[in-house]
Structures are given as structure tokens and as C-alpha cells.
Amino acid sequence: xxxxxxxxxxxxxxxxxxxKYIYEMLNRCLGDTSFSKVKADYVFDVELSPNRIGxxxxxxxxxxxxxxxxxxxFKESSEYKLKKPKKVIPMSVKNQAKKTCECYFGIVLDDVxxxxxxxxxxxxxxxxxxxxxxxxxxITNYVMLDLGQPMHAFDYSKIKGSKIIVRNAKKxxxxxVLTGDQYLLDEDVMVIANEEEAMAIAGIKGGINAExxxxxxxxxxxxxxxxxxxxxxxxxxxxxxxxxxxxxSHSISSHITYQALKRAxxxxxxxxxxxxASKELVANxxxxxNNIIPFNLERVNRLIGQEIPSKDIQRILVKxxxxxxxxxxxxxxxxxPLYRLNVLxxxxxxxxxxxxxxxxxxxxIPPKVELLAVKNNEFFDFKETIKDIAVSxxxxxxxxxxxxxxxxxxxxxxxxxxxxxxxxxxxSLNYKYMNPILATSLIKNVVTNLSNFDNGKIFQLDKTxxxxxxxxxxxxxxxxxxxxVNKKTKEKDLILESKGIIExxxxxxxxxxSQYYFSDKADERYGCLNVxxxxxxxxxxxxxxTVGYLGLVNDKIKTEYKIKxxxxxxxxxxxxxxxxxxxxxxxxxxxxxxxPKYPASIKDISVLVENNVLIxxxxxxxxxxxxxxxxxxxxxxxxDLQDNGKKSLSFHLIFRNENKTLxxxxxxxxxxxxxxxxxxxxxxxx
Length: 686
Fold this sequence. Notes:
alpha+beta; elongated
């Protein structure tokens, strides 16, 4: 943003310091600054931060900054009042874009003499990089430099119907601007129009069809305020950037909008012999309220880290245009100037104080903090251990988005559908709901990988989300999937391999056989998963709580996700384990056991059972006999008797006593106890 030394001086009572000193202070207090001599003036180019452009784009408000920096006095001018018109020329304004045109002021001026601008106006414009055109156009540009409010003047004789309409452009509407360039508009572009056509692109550029020229006698002066986002988007869409669009894109106070109208009328009366020929044309006037912020001096000092004298704080704020009402010695009510839309909270005021006071005037005091060792997060370490184990058994980790879409939701059980929730403003329909179960994302991973690999082993460790009476249930699950297209690979083999992965994981976590068991029954959350799987096995802890599941995906789901087709129909097994419940099963206490002194006795037993009997049930029945000398049970053979629907299970039974070598009679007694127990269940001992 460019600023003229001479124009800044016109607002300040005392003589300004040298241009070099001002350059140094602007560089320190506002942003990167450069300066150069232009004729009999100096021009400062200040790179304002985006939040300050709307407030400081006018010389008047930049002069307040210099008053605060150099402790100078601002030269207040008497407020100009609009005169009553001696004759009234008909003109009306209608605002049809109230959401984007926040306020609109206008006035008709008659007997305007189009001529060359006075020297001080021409010099100010040219020094700030603008061309002098004629006194009317130059005055609107001069007021923009002066107050930061862009303005525009229309030739009254070219306004068809004597009516100004603020509206959105029609689709396909065209306008030729003052530079001669033509633009194709759409419904998102706001225009200033008459009854027949657009006369300007609102807030950006005037049109050639209502241009001021040497024959103009009557003008309509416009001072309006437009929504910053609309002007910014229009400027980018049309690739048309002007001094006006830059200012409007960063929000201008409507308080300045009315001030600018009166200032422009005052100058036009003086330098264009203009006479007011209408009442104020007002559409959608926006009344801004003063922002009053409680201001605690002790809090200022805590925030900065050292004490700044209260008299310095008061001087800086008053020079910047703030008003102060003291409630007590430490508590003030600070009224923010209306033009400072960027000052919203207490910290914004402190920012103004510190940058004017000078960051280099603050003491360099290093922060004093107590350095403590990072507290160990045991659950995080546990998750990392799970990942390491998963990799060690041949699984590959995947990362998925924590969202599902309507198609995913439709396949889920009703329990999940009732409790699912999602963001209010989803970025895409694919990210509509938070994922309540890892199975959906793992199935999608199978779909993706099938195009390149006929079999795979994938795992994911992530959170799931459910809403229970407006309370979000956020749980961490470990899930994995095995799939295989090979028709020789039986579904049962894939299930057994998956079950083996779970058992290996539990073994590496030092979870003993007595702490868990597998079953075909589960609680409501897991039991309802039969809509996804045709075979389900559930993992339980020794308290009977369901910890996870292992399931074979059914054909309906495979068809829904196009896993099953004419070329391929893979077997897909998915498992999920609740990490919080699994974590409670792990005992991290390390017990040292010496190498046994006495030998073990191994006896084999074969049991004939129905095909639907789980191996785990047979093992649990034996363990429930609580034979202390029975140290382990190993399954070493499964033989499927396909003809009669039965299978033969063969186990190694390992007996050992820590204090002596077991006698044959003792072992036979234990074997008899085991065979009798299994026989009572209807199993046949072979």
C-alpha cells in the first residue's frame, strides 16, 4: 500500500520526522517498508498484514499510527454537513443484493464543471501511482487514498429510468469497463445497474456506458460497502484486480462509507462547482456498534512477560484512536475505533500496544519451565507391540479414512445404523459418517488389492465411533483380514489360520490359555454381525466378556462390494479385537521359572466329535478338571470323517510334577478322569 509523506503531514499538527526515520518505524511496527523520493514528496510502500489492510488503507488512519509512533498530535477537522438541495432531481436506489451489499449511500450533484484537478490532488494521485483523469474522477480516487473508501461517480444522463439497482448479474450478461475490456458475468457477480443494463461491476470497476466525460453536467455519487468475500471471489473469477477490489476484499467499516460520501461532496462543491440536487440516497444502511473490550493491566503484563508503564499504554491507545474509561487503577473499558474491524479481542489491543511500544524495547528473558521426563503412555506402547506382533506373523498394515458412506451404512446391522453419526458439513458423500466398525474399511481394502494380488493378509489398528445418547463412544480396535482366490484353499483353512494368528498374538502377549476361550455365542454388539458373516467365532476373556470376533464374509456382502464376480470369488475372513479389553488381559509382570528338574510324561488321546464341536470346547472341558499336573494340551491332528459328519481330534497331554517324577499309576488316574469327563459329553474316545 502506497502512502504520501505530504498527505500524511496534512493530518498531523507537528512537523513529521524525516522520511528515513518514518521508514524505519513503519518497518518495525507494521511490516516490510520501502520508500522513495517522488518529485517534492516521499512515498512509502508498506506491506500491510491482511488483517490491517481494510483499516489502514487510508492516509487518515495511517496518520494515527504515526501519531502513536512519534507521540504527535492528530489534526482533527470540522465535520462537513450535507446541505439541503435547492432543487431536486429524481433518482432512486434499490438494493436487491442485501446479503452482499451491506450498505449503499448516494447523492445527485448538479451543475458540475468538468475540468482539471487542483495541483495537490493531482500530485497525491500521481505520487501514489494513479493517473489524473478529471476533477470528478480524481476526487473519488483522492477520497479513497484519504479515507480508504473506494467511490464511483455515474453520469446522471446515462442512467436509464433514473434508478440505480444493486443486483446480481444475469447469466450471460456482458459489460464493457472503463479500460475497454469486456467481461462475461454470471449470477454470482454483483453489479450496479439501471433499469436496462449493468453500469459497473460492484466494488471493482465502472462501466463505460455511464462514464463521466467533458459534457457531463449532473452526476450520481456512490459510496457503498460490499461483502469482502463476494468482491474477492469476483475479482479472482474475472481476473480483474483494482485498488477498489483490494480494499473491499479486506473489509471496510461502513462508518467510513458515509464519511467518504460527505468528504467527496465537500471537495466537489469546492473544486467542481457542484450543487446538491437530491436528498441522500440510502439503501440498507448498516449501523455499526462500538466494540467495548474489558482491559486488565495486570493481564497485559502477564501476557507480555514484563511490565509496561500504564501511562505508556494509555498514550499509545489514545493516539491510535481508542477511548478509555477507567473502572479502577487496573481495570479499564477500552472502546475500539469503528474503522478498526481487525480488533476484536483483548489480545488484539495488546498487539497494538506492543508493536508501537517496540518489541526491541522488551527485555530478553528466557522462559523458566521445569523440564520433566515424558510420562510413559503404556496403552500407546501396547498398540505398538500389537503392530510388531502383527507384522511378525505376516500381516501388512494399512491406513484408512475414519469415514463411511451410505452404501457402507446400508450393509451394517441395525444396532450400528441407530448409533452412527457424522460431521455436520461433510466434505464429500464418501465421508458422511464416522466409521463404527473396521470391517467396512477392511472389505474395501480387499476390493482394492484384488486387482493386483490373488491373496493377502492385511491389518488395521484404528478407532471406531458410535453415538450413545449424544455421548460419543470412541474405541480402539485391531482388525485384520485374510483373503484367497485359490479354489484349493478351503474356507475352513483360512478360518483356522486366522484363529492361529489370534492365538499366536495372545501367546506373545503372555495371555495364558486359562484367560480366554472361543465360542459361537456373543453379546448383542457382536452377535448381530451375522448379517455380514456366514460363520462367526467369538473370543471371550475368562469373565465371559466378548473381546472380539472372527468371521467368514458371506456371499451377499461380497456381491455388494463386487468382490464376487465371474472371474473371482475369494474366501474372505475378517477379525476384530477390542484393544481396551485385550489390554486388561495382558499381565506384564515377568515371572521367572527355573528349568523343570523332573521329566514330563506325554500321553496322546484321540476324540471323535461332531463337526460342529469347537476344538476349544474340548480343551476347556479338560482344563476345567483342574488337574495341577496337566501342564499343557497340544492339538496335533484333525481328521475329517466326511461320510458321517464327524471329525477326529488328537491331542498331546503333557503331565509334570515340580517335586517328583510321576508314577504310571498317577498318570493313568488322570487319563481315566479325562476320558470319563469327555464321554459324559457324548464324545467317543478312540
